[in-house]
Amino acid sequence: MTSATSSDLIPLLTNLQEITYDIDFEQVHKWKREHPGKKAIATFPVYVPHELIYAYGHLPVNIYGGGEEISISHADAILGSFICSISKSTTELLLSHQPFRDAFDGFVFPFICDVARNLSGIFGRRISQPVYMLHLAQNVQSEHSIPYLKNEFMRMVSTLFPDEQLDLEKLRDAISKYNENRALYKKIYELRSETPWKVPLDDLYMTIRVGSNLDVVKHNELLKSKLSEYEKNERPKKDAIRVVVTGNFCEQPPLDIIRLIEQVGCYVIDDDFMIGRRFYQTPVSEEGDPIEALARHYLHEGAKTATRFHEGEKGEVILERVKNANAEGVIFLTAKFCEPALDDLVLQQQALQENGIPSVHIEFEERGSGYENIRLSLETFVESLLFD
Amino acid sequence: MENIVAVKEEDLQYAGAARKMQRQLVRDFYRQDVTKPVVYLFVGGNPAELLRALGFQVYMPEITALTMAIRHQSLQYILKAESIGYGLDVCGYVKTDIGLTHLSGGETDMGKIPRPDLLVCNYSGCSVYAKWWEALAEFYKVPLIMLDIPYHRFNDPQKEDLEYIIGQLREMVEKIEKLFDLTFDMNRLKDVLAYSRKAEDGWGRSFEMAKHVPSPIDAYFESIFYMFPINALRGTKEAAEFYDLLNRELDERVKHGIGPVENEEFRTVIEGVPPYPGYRSFWNMFKKWNAVSVAATYPKVGGMFDIPELRHDPAKPWESIARYSIFSYCNLSWDFRRETIKRYLEDFKADALVIHGIKSCRSFTAGQGDLRDYVINELGYPALYVESDHQDPRYWAEAQILNRVDAFFEALRMKR
Ligand code: SF4
Ligand code: SF4
User: Fold this and answer.
1) Cis peptide, bond prior to residue A46, ω within 30 of zero
2) With a 6 A CB cut-off, is A247 part of the ligand 1 pocket?
3) CATH 3.30.565.10 fits B18-187, yes or no
4) Residue B390: which of B368, B361, B365, B354 has the closest Cα?
């Protein structure tokens, strides 16, 4: 596929925000023009194994709704009132935004929650492209989960690409490229943990998010370039508080809220932003059966988001994250109407409380009307930590 | 029965018999002593037969929660759960259960709800199931077994999905044998399955009865009462006998041409979870228009009891349990749900579809607007969508819903 050169990166670097939030998916259309006969597949959060799609020579694209770029006029009537904004804006894109419909040759909705799962049925009725609801195995203990998941992955690709064969060598190669992608995130996050002032949160966020609609090779080049830029960054160190931000594993908060967190005096050391692209901290095995490697990694190494079953460790997981980040507090930043986030929050907040770690809960929507209340809550939280 | 009309008492041997027995079964259930280990299961696609055969007392907190809501007792427990951090947008069943059993000791005016010794998460149709049980496992410090049921996406369950479920069922049984020092007895399971099948045959037949014109039963508002035995007691002799009695009562109503309203004027299919806090008032809104529900999806939340091939089968114990588990209504793809509604509208000679969406349950509700669009624009039936909640009375806007229902039937009548 594409081999990126540094000159390819110039438009990305200069128009990062515009490209990141482009609901016309111009980057995807461009890629398709450059790769005639190849397909672009949209994947809904949180996690879909992009390696599998990439191995066929197609482009996997994470979609994150329409954010502030689209207003909702039809989706409310389709979905009902008490539904998160990412689902509504994704449905709105489907119903009324032709460049979105045209960009993609297939859609995957993983079973992260009932809404995402049901979206697959709404899409399926309204478009002719294949739509697959990926049932990721929940039972991590069963010996039957790996064979099931392997088969499930294959059902996904054979629905998307019914006439094509999977080449296992190409899959190994895809795994290797995505491993590199994840290793680069890890390095940037490590740098941020050591010297957070060098890595501005909004820039980091968009640098990761823009990869959603790029060929992974190109994104790897971008990450390398950004890493060296961050390393050389001479921004002054601020007297800010180290925090963990959690809960936003699926719907993404508006950029203004992400900026606000840093503006009020926090360094975000660990977060769930774009967690689907950073789902693994360890590399997926490049040896042996690559489909099995993906299945095994999902079951045993995946991020412990609220969108999957993981028993008896909610408190431990958040406490561990706080410890590793050397953080002073936690910001729960959850999408309005997102039940998985709200369910997990209770046990996590309890664990933090028992351990004397302050936290604040903020709900957001894609199209908030001003963020004064959120600013106030964040400022109060920061002040309480500063004067503790 | 609530509404038998224009008949002479002496002609009716079974009038009200099913409702009376159902009430008694509910009373007995909540008053029973706890003599065996207690397992909590979910309603959708559960393996209750296996747990009964293993010697457990089976409880389903969803049923307790709805029972509280219909008795107007849910809000106090919802508020309790909210006081420990459960948000406004969390499913009301979760909050009622946690508020009642974990935070209030399970005491109710019907009896005490015991805490579980074991949690089995039959993950069929609802992602909240996993979250709910994870929390209970932490609160009660009891073992939790995940039983992952793949979502229905293929017309027939695929071999791999069945193998996955059956493999997990066997692992579950082994695990429970060890944890509780119990021995699994296949003959006992077959006996339980035979009772399940008998109950399912009877329950399935009662759905068919609504094809009569006039319908002898309201297949939503009335059938909801009759869901208790199939869901809470499936696999017992009492449940099997209950549906025999129900069918005798329905046969008698057909014989006398009587139904839930005096002059059946409208036949509706109803989709969605009921508004338990406003249940009676909601029903009255339909009775007022002589509207009878002739088919409904909610009575199939446990499983698709109207499809004979999906019934439990002592001759195929593992496979029939696995098949059943995939076909709980909330685990069904929208394709299948749309086809089901279409079938109900046609087969039951319905005039319209009524959809009740609820705040709590995105599993049931997300996409019901799309269904409405499909029914109106592709099938050509009128469809009404109203919204409230199944547990939380704060979302029951009676006047507003009444207006919508009145306007809907007014328009239907005008068109005639
Ligand atoms: S934001 Fe939450 S509720 Fe909405 S689709 Fe994502 S996980 Fe589901
Ligand atoms: S979300 Fe729906 S299916 Fe799930 S527990 Fe609540 S009411 Fe039941």
Assistant:
1) yes
2) no
3) no
4) B361
Could you tell me if A372 lies within 8 Å of chain B, comparing CB atoms? no
Domain ranges of chain B: 18-187, 199-415
A37 — alpha (psi -120 to 50), left (phi > 0) or beta?
A: left
Closest to A55 measured CA to CA, from A153, A124, A136, A183: A153
pLDDT in tens, A142-183: 999 999 999 999 999 999 999 999 999 999 999 999 999 999
Q: Which two tokens stand for residue B141?
A: 């410090």
At residue B6 the predicted structure's pLDDT band, cuts being 50, 70 and 90, is low
Specify the residue for token string 């009725």: A125
Q: Nearest chain A Cα to B137, which residue?
A: A312
Is there a contact between B357 and B368 (Cβ–Cβ < 8 Å)?
Answer: yes
Give the tokens for residue B27. 């009373």
Which DSSP helix (H) or strand (E) runs through A133? strand A131-134
> How far is C-alpha A352 from the geometric centre of its chain's CA atoms?
25
From the CB of B195, is ligand 2 less than 6 Å away? Answer: no
Q: How remote is the CA of residue B397 from the centroid of ligand 2, in Å?
A: 21
Interatomic CA distance for residues A39 and B254, integer angstroms? 59
ipTM (interface pTM): 0.95
Residue B4 has pLDDT above 50, yes or no: no
Between positions 32 and 91 of A, the ones with CB within 8 A of B are 76-83, 87
Q: Rounded to an integer, what distance in angstroms lies between the CA atom of residue A174 and that of residue A258?
A: 31
- Its CATH architecture, for the domain B199-415, is 3-Layer(aba) Sandwich (3.40)
In 3D, which of B126, B64, B138 has the Cα closest to residue B95?
Answer: B64
Burial class (CB in 10 A: 0-12, 13-18, 19+), A369: exposed
Three-class DSSP labels, chain B: CCCCCCCCHHHCCCCCHHHHHHHHHHHHHHHCCCCCCEEECCCCCCCHHHHHHCCCEEECHHHHHHHHHHCCCHHHHHHHHHHCCCCCCCCHHHHHHHHHHHHHCCEECCEECCCCCEEEEEECCCCHHHHHHHHHHHHHCCCEEEEECCCECCCCCCHHHHHHHHHHHHHHHHHHHHHHCCCCCHHHHHHHHHHHHHHHHHHHHHHHHCCCCCCCCCCCCCHHHHHHHHHHCCCCHHHHHHHHHHHHHHHHHHHHCCCCCCCCCEEEEEEECCCHHHHHHHHHHHHCCCEEEEEECHHHCCCCCCCHHHCCCCCCHHHHHHHHHHCCHHHECHHHHHHHHHHHHHHCCCCEEEEEEECCCHHHHCCHHHHHHHHHHHHCCCEEEEEECCCCHHHCCHHHHHHHHHHHHHHHHHHC
**Residue found by looking up tokens 């936690």 in the block:** A330
Q: Cα–Cα distance between A5 and A234 in angstroms, integer?
A: 26
What is the CA B261 to chain-centroid distance, rounded? 23
Nearest to B131 among A83, A121, A344 (CB): A344
Q: Minimal Cα–Cα distance from A200 to chain B, Å?
A: 32
- Could you give the percent of chain B with pLDDT greater than 90? 95
Per residue in B138-168, pLDDT (tens digit) is 999 999 999 999 999 987 788 999 999 999 9
Would you call B386 exposed, middle or buried from its count of C-beta atoms within 10 A (0-12, 13-18, 19+)?
Answer: buried
The partner residue sitting opposite B144, judged by closest CB among A81, A124, A311, is: A311
**Residues A277/A300, Cβ–Cβ less than 8 Å:** no
CATH topology of B18-187 equal to that of B199-415?
yes
Q: Is A312 left (phi over 0), alpha (psi -120 to 50) or beta?
A: left
Q: Is the CB of B93 under 6 A from ligand 2?
A: yes
Chain A residues with CB-CB distance to B147 below 8 A? 139
**Domains within chain A, CATH numbers bracketed:** 20-168 (3.40.50.11890)
β pairing state of A131-134 and A241-246 = unpaired
